[in-house]
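Now for a sample.
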Amino acid sequence: MRGLLLYTLARVGLFLVIWIPLQLFTSWRGFPALVAAILVSGGISLVVLNRQRNSAAGNVQSFFGRINRRIDESRTAEDYDGPDHQEGETPPSASPNPNSAP
């Protein structure tokens, strides 16, 4: 999750670099400066922070992929109730038997 944290900090930093000078050195104050800073920093971040955004997206994807895999494994283990089901037996999909007929 380090990539996501770095990307978020970079986005906030870029926003502040745009917003603070707008507040201090222009006649734009408050809401107009906020909107302008969001639009400008968002446009710049699309180009400048592309690598960090891809890294953060990969981190989030792998994190939720692991969660989904655990959920699927649990669901498969809970749903298995075959005719010869024994306590502690693994479902056929978890440990396929190469000698069994289809």
